[in-house]
């Protein structure tokens, strides 16, 4: 029993590393963390929340709220700025609302209930390219190619995050069997 307990240590280290490494892979974010998606009682907590994270294409935003009390509308910049709830690009009314970021650039979300948007129940985030995925096709035609050498990666090649995880698991197995022998 004491020996098994001892052997658990390297696995804890490996697991910790796996949790830290894929920081640039697609992630899921709970909007507002503990605040959820609610009408702020002051200030602009969603602007602060957004400034504390870096988003990439492929990330998912999860809005947790009381269904019926709030909505999540994806809107244009002008609708965001003016809190125009009339013609959203898309709207979700049931919690949790899941929004996957599919394009680079700015994305705008507001609550369409009453004056919640005016009370800063609104979120804008900027998504960068996910450098772990294939090069993005968003360069305008005729623009110079990126300064970094073009990657010759074939479609379906494993990304670096997956390789790193497999290497960590392999090292973990080595440590495990080394210590148990
Ligand atoms: Cu609301």
From TrEMBL:
| SUPFAM superfamilies from the UniProt entry | Cupredoxins
Boundaries of each Phytocyanin domain copy?
27-129
Residue intervals passing through the bilayer = 160-179
Its Gene Ontology cellular component terms are: plasma membrane
Q: Which InterPro entries match?
A: Cupredoxin, Phytocyanin-like, Phytocyanin_dom
* Gene3D superfamilies, per the entry: Cupredoxins - blue copper proteins (2.60.40.420)
Keywords, alphabetical? Glycoprotein, Membrane, Metal-binding, Signal, Transmembrane, Transmembrane helix
Compositional bias per record (Pro residues), positions renumbered to this chain: 137-149
Where is region (Disordered) located?
130-154
Superkingdom to which the source organism belongs: Eukaryota
Signal sequence span is 1-26
Any single GO molecular-function term of the entry would be: electron transfer activity
Instruction: Report the PANTHER family cross-referenced here.
Output: BLUE COPPER PROTEIN, OS08G0482700 PROTEIN
**Name recorded for this polypeptide:** Phytocyanin domain-containing protein
Q: From which organism does this entry originate?
A: Ambrosia artemisiifolia (Common ragweed)
Upper lineage ranks? Eukaryota, Viridiplantae, Streptophyta, Embryophyta, Tracheophyta
């Amino acid at each position: 029993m004491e020996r098994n307990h001892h052997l658990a240590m390297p696995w804890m280290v490996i697991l910790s590393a796996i949790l830290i490494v894929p920081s640039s892979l697609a992630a899921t974010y709970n909007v507002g963390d503990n605040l959820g998606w609610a009408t702020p009682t002051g200030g602009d907590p969603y602007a602060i929340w957004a400034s504390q994270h870096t988003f990439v294409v492929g990330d998912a935003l999860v809005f947790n709220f009381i269904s019926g009390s709030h909505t999540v509308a994806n809107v244009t910049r002008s609708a965001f700025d003016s809190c125009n709830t009339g013609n959203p690009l898309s709207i979700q009314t049931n919690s949790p609302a899941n929004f996957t970021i599919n394009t680079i650039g700015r994305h705008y979300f507001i609550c369409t209930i009453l004056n919640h948007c005016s009370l800063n129940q609104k979120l804008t985030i900027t998504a960068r390219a996910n450098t772990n995925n294939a090069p993005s096709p968003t360069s305008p035609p005729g623009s110079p190619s990126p300064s970094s050498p073009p990657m010759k990666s074939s479609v379906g090649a494993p990304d670096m995050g997956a390789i790193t995880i497999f290497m960590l698991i392999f090292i973990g197995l080595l440590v495990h069997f080394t210590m148990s022998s």
